[in-house]
Each structure stands twice: as structure tokens, then as C-alpha cells.
């Protein structure tokens, strides 16, 4: 199992915005090296935009680049590293499963540090997805909600108060609850190594609590980097039979195809067929169903 090589030097103060992304990477070195790799890649890209010239920042970045190169070499046979489409599906699936676990626990009023950790780690991984491009509106809502929930539950537990389960009347502090997402809608993912057993209350298959609980949830939100637009707006592809497709429909078809690829990687043939059929139907008719 891949691990990150030599330890990093002390984190420069300027790089504080990525300290929890790097901590998430360390937490997943053995549990899921693919997650650890992309957490470090996001951290490096974000840190380089903050400061790549001062001696302490430059020295830190060089060591972080060395770690990434070592991990890439150790994981060279892993498709989620060599193929960014598969890598994006892997990270997105993991983040959504962690969010779903925390959301189910929260709505069932099972409040503990694991729920705080799951919500906050999910928000970190939604940040990490920006290495692949612009986040969808749904993922932005999930990230905002997860950050608010982790801070809210953590604050209640610290004060000895009982948190309110679920969204508070739909919104709290301008944070809107994301639309409900069924587990069947998530892309397939290989189970993580050394997963915790599911809690005694009902949890969807594959959802799991993280292996550690946080000593402290940061009070300040982590800034996110601007993401590039994936396609030029003027492109207007045409489906088979002369049906015009919007860029949203093309993106949706592409996403279904990469979910199918990810499913095949983990030998989930029925799920791969299901996603490919949906993509084909969308491309040939302009409709999902």
C-alpha cells in the first residue's frame, strides 16, 4: 500500500488554508492512497497560488512535490491515478458516501465526533474535486452544507448542547440543505482498506465512519481556488438523429460514461451497463429516460 515518503517540513503560515487537506491526506495514506494522493495534489496546486517564491514556502512545495512523485510511482498501476476520469469518479464517490453517512447519522440524531469528522472531511474532498475542474452546483451546495453542519454540531457538543437534527427549517445562516441523494445515485467505489464496521443504526451499504475523530474542527472556512470552465459556451453538439444537445447534457453523458468505467474497474458489470445505457439514451434522444 502506498505511503507518502519522507515527512514534510513544518507548514508555513501562508499555507494554513491547506493544512486540513494535508491532514486528510495523512489520514488516508493506508486507508485509501488514491484519496491521499489527490488531497496532496490539491494542496500543492492551491499552495503554489498562495506563495511559490519565499524560501520557506518554496522549500515546503519542493518536499510536497517529492511526496507526490513517490506516490505516483508507487501507484503507477492504479487507474484512478493514471486516468483522471476514473480518479474524479473515485474521489466524488468517496466524498458523497462520507457525506451521506454523516447526513443519515445527523438526521437520526446520533451526534458525536465521528459525524463532525465525516461532514468536515467530505467538505475537504469536495474542495479536492476542483483539481479536475469546476464543481457542479449540487456539489457546491453539499460542500457548503457539510461545512456548516460540522461547525454547528461541533459547537453544540463543545457547549454541552443538543444539536437540532437535519436542516433547520431548510436554511441556517444562508446555508441551504442540499437535495436528497439516494445511495443508488452514487458512482461505485472499491471499499476502503480497514473500514470501520457500520454503526448499529441503519446506514446505507458502503457508508462508513472515518477511522479517527477530530481534535478540533476549524472555525474558519477554508478558501477554495477558482476553477476553470471545462468547455467553451458556444459549442452546440448534435446527437444522433439531429437532436441538439446542450453542454449540460454532454457533461451529463460524459459523467455517466466515467461512472461506467469506474464500475468496470471494480467489476460491477450491472452498474456499468446501467450507466452506459443511460449515456447512450441521452446521446441519441437528448433525454435521460
UniProtKB/TrEMBL annotation:
Location relative to the cell: Cytoplasm; Endosome membrane
Name the domain of life: Eukaryota
Q: Name one Pfam family in it.
A: Vta1
Q: Name one GO biological process term.
A: late endosome to vacuole transport via multivesicular body sorting pathway
**Chief place where the protein resides:** cytoplasm
Q: Where would I find the Vta1 C-terminal domain in this sequence?
A: 248-284
Q: Where is this region: Disordered?
A: 159-233
Q: Name one GO cellular component term.
A: multivesicular body
Q: Where is the composition biased (Pro residues)?
A: 196-213
Q: How does it sit in the membrane?
A: Peripheral membrane protein
The UniProt keywords, alphabetically, are: Cytoplasm, Endosome, Membrane, Protein transport, Transport
The UniProt record lists the Vta1/callose synthase N-terminal domain at: 18-158
| Keyword Protein transport attached | yes
Cited InterPro entries: Vta1-like (IPR044538), Vta1/CALS_N (IPR039431), Vta1/CALS_N_sf (IPR023175), Vta1_C (IPR041212)
Family per similarity comment: Belongs to the VTA1 family.
Protein name as annotated: Vacuolar protein sorting-associated protein VTA1 homolog isoform X1
Q: Which organism is it from?
A: Branchiostoma floridae
